[in-house]
Amino acid sequence: MTNPSSAPLALESIASAARERDVFEAVEFAGERLSCKARDAATDAFYRLESRNGRVFASLVTPDRWLSESIESDLMHYGDPLEELVAEELAEFGLEVPESELVVKHFRSDDLLYTFETPLPAPIAADADKTLRFLLAYEAAFRALGDMSGSDED
Q1: What's the CATH code of the domain at 92?
Q2: Could you tell me the residue range of the domain that residue 109 belongs to?
Q3: The three-state (H, E, C) secondary structure of the chain, written as one string
Q4: What pTM was computed for the model?
Q5: Would you say residue 10 lies in a domain?
Q6: Is residue 110 included in any domain, yes or no?
Q7: Is residue 112 part of a domain?
Q8: Residue among 13, 36, 3 nearest 129 (CA)
Q9: Of the four, 38, 60, 115, 120, which is 20 to 30 A from 44 by CA?
Q10: pLDDT (tens digit per residue) in 111-134
Q11: Residue 96's pLDDT band (cuts 50, 70, 90)
């Protein structure tokens, strides 16, 4: 079993590695949550890793309904399941996770954030490097959707 006190230490090391990758506008670590501000999104959006009830979750959260809807619209337009897009990006980062083992829930959280959330498979969540790669793959999967890459109109 994982020592509960080791979770914040792992997330802190992942935060440091995420900063070095220079993918996010900002990276913050507090308690059991790592929050990475999306770079170039049309409005505030954050990729998160957090530990809850013995599980690690990756998520994309935004207070902006229109940003969430722009992502949904692209998914409906292109017809690709989000789980497939995440699985493809995971493979690019050297993590082979069958699409059938990925679940991306989309909901509005209790703190009124539009949320896309995925529990990490246990073998990935137990390894800091794999967890970082999962976060980077999650970001890559969402980056091209909706207004996540900015609001330039040409």
Answers
A1: 3.30.1460
A2: 6-143
A3: CCCCCHHHHHHHHHHHHHHHHCCCCEEEEECCEEEEECCCCCCCCEEEEEEECCEEEEEEEECCHHHHHHHHHHHHHHCCCHHHHHHHHHHHCCCCCCHHHCCCEEEECCCCCEEEEEECCHHHHCCHHHHHHHHHHHHHHHHCCCCCCCCCCC
A4: 0.90
A5: yes
A6: yes
A7: yes
A8: 13
A9: 120
A10: 999 999 999 999 999 999 999 999
A11: very high
Asked if 93 and 136 touch (Cβ cutoff 8 Å), the reply is: yes
Quickly state the pLDDT bin for 5 (edges 50, 70, 90).
Answer: very low
> Order of strands across the sheet with 33-37?
26-30, 33-37, 46-52, 55-62, 114-119, 105-108
Q: Is residue 149 situated within a structural domain?
A: no
Structural tokens at position 44: 């505030």
